[in-house]
Amino acid sequence: MSKTTSVRAPGAVLTPRQTITVMVGLMLGMFLASLDQTIVSTSIYTIANDLDGLSLQAWATTAYLITSTVSTPLYGKLSDIFGRRPLYLAAILIFLAGSLYAGSVHSMTELAIARGIQGMGAGGLLALALTIIGDIVALKDRAKFQGYFMSVFGISSVLGPVIGGAFAGSANILGFDGWRWVFFINLPIGLAALAVVFLYLHLPAKHVKQKIDYWGAAAITLAIVPLLLVAEQGRSWGWTSVSSLLCVGLGIVGIVAFIFVEKRAGDYALIPLRLFRNITFGLSSLLNFIIGIGMFGAIAMLPMYLQLVKGLTPTEAGLMMITFTVGILFGSITAGRTISASGTYRIFPIMGTAILTGAALVMGLSLRADTPLWVPGAIAVFFGLGLGFCMQPLTLAMQVSVPAKDMGVGTSSAAFFRSMGGAVGTAAFISMLFALAAEKVASGMKDAAQDAGFLKVLNDPAVAADPANAPLYAFFKNGAGNDSLNDTSWLHAANPTLIRPITEGFAQSIDTVMLTAAALTGVAFLISFALPKKKLTDPKLAKEPVAAH
């Protein structure tokens, strides 16, 4: 890349006041993109009922996941060619258009399309925010600022279910159905982010003459879309169904094609394979993927435990998870400030994966049907702390391990591998949970049938006549098959004595899932020791002098 197109040092572009202003705009964008990953989870049932499309509700989530994941590396590469500012502004506009459409839909099919458009914008918001910070802030300050961004990511991910539940629970807000504000709320925040970035982010004009890797984009789409589809839909399709096997096969073909195409593309590849020869980049990518599987899969289990076993509503479970944000705030900010002061980063992935492993292990050994609520609340703090120690330092390590011309690719790759791991982990662990629950609930019911106290309540005419217990008696009649556990909305309205085998079965299943998560994060802990023992240095500063700040 020529001198005229290289990214300049921080002081050459923005004043300190402008830097802070731009950061606020970028944080708003990241808040929106990460919020929309979870905000629909507690409102989708209400939305699907209103749009008469209950059977299609999963596609609203799947469409967003697919388009945001596929577009992440595309934004990273295109921003290295055309510049960050135009790509980021385009991402906000696409996201806002998708949000406006999503709030105005009249069918679940339309909603799935709108969520797909939202995801196309969200991929850029997630990929480019940290990249832009890498452009405008020197390394000594960048770690600190990026720590704040990771805190925003964690907070919005937890607040999503709370906000979504609150909107869905309101019949009408300002003349619109309450659930439509799940999407309309993005408009004022997104417009504010758009205005700030448009007015204050002025990076040097940039257009590198380079071919665009269309074949790589097609191959990565062929690889990711079928694999994400089977990850999201595999449990309902059946893991050995024709649809699932076809998706897995297409995904494998896509991965092979992507590696072949990227090898031939060389420097203009979407994700140049030469980057993986750098041990820091390669190991950080692997760690992001494994941590994504273990951590985000585990995060899905805590709300599941709070709702299925403890009987909390989705909104209450979301509020309980606020303790998670305490951990991620402390972890991200502590890691960022320490790295800014010392340049040392390796200790944080080591500590973070150790804490994640310990938290998953404690959760797997301690959660029962009668465990006090403060226990999962405390565990969530350590999950957040471990994630805060891992995410930001690994992203920073990937940024500075690549040449300045590949900053966009390096940063977006961190988000891409973490997102892929999260999708795989969440799908795998939820499927594992329900498969185990069917077995453990059936075993618990068999044992309960030998208990005189349980049988006395079961055969009580008054209990049998209570309408709240009708679904429970139907469940006993049909048996604890995997399909019969798909709808447990009736569970905590039924007799507490009779539901005990079911809640215990779910608690034991969640324990097993968490022990599996502990094994995965334990592997990441061992891998983290292979990260190089050296301080992070800014590749830009070696090429250009830093102007007075």
Features:
disordered C terminus; disordered N terminus; 2 strands; two-stranded antiparallel sheet; mainly alpha; 20 helices; single chain; 549 residues
Describe this structure in words.
There is one protein chain. This protein has 549 residues and is mostly helical. Helices cover 72% and strands 1% of the residues. The chain is built from 20 helices and two strands. The chain has helices at 16-35, 44-50, 57-82, 84-102, 108-136, 139-168, 181-184, 186-200, 214-237, 242-265, 279-309, 314-320, 322-342, 347-366, 374-400, 407-448, 452-458, 461-465, 470-478, 500-528, and strands at 172-173, 176-177. It has a two-stranded antiparallel ribbon with strand order 1-2. Helix 1 packs parallel to helix 6 (139-168), helix 4 (84-102) runs antiparallel to helix 5 and helix 11 packs antiparallel against helix 15 (374-400). The longest helix has 42 residues, at 407-448. The model is unreliable at 1-12 and 541-549 (pLDDT under 50).
